Hints:
With 153 residues, the chain is of the alpha+beta class. It has helices at residues 25-32, 38-55, 130-145, and strands at 14-22, 64-70, 73-79, 86-94, 98-106, 109-116, 121-126. The protein has a single domain (14-145), classed as Roll (PH-domain like). A seven-stranded antiparallel β-sheet has the order 4-3-2-1-7-6-5, with helices on one face. The relative contact order is 0.19.
Amino acid sequence: MTARPPGLDPEEQLLARAAVSFRGAAATSVKTTFALGSARKRLDSYYDWRMLADGAGFSTTGPEMVLGLTDRGLVVWNTSFWFGAPRSITARIPFSQIHDAAAARHGIVTGLALAFTSGAIVEVEAIRGRKLRHLASDLRRRLTDGPGDSVRP
Length: 153
């Protein structure tokens, strides 16, 4: 990993991170590419997704975000405009609130579904899914083994 993302506590350890979008972002972008008001339609899809995500405690400020796995749980950052770098934390989700996680590849998109102990499910996706699949694998290992056990470096 390169520079330490903002907002982490000094002793908090970042284990993995991946740039993601709301679930359905790629499909919405493809469907509306040549339509008038395509950016508006994409934002409307994001706002629908966001209502469900906010209810689960997965708060975001835009359709693009960076998801991070730390030794304490999941962190969601909003991103900078130019390079999509993590800017500020919008959500912190402790392991105790996550029941399970599953990642699957769907063509060019990799999706991650997070099942919360509240019963809510939040899905995100990434076009370049390798980092997201590694994050999901590490998260599942952490949920199965317990927070005190080590995760792949």
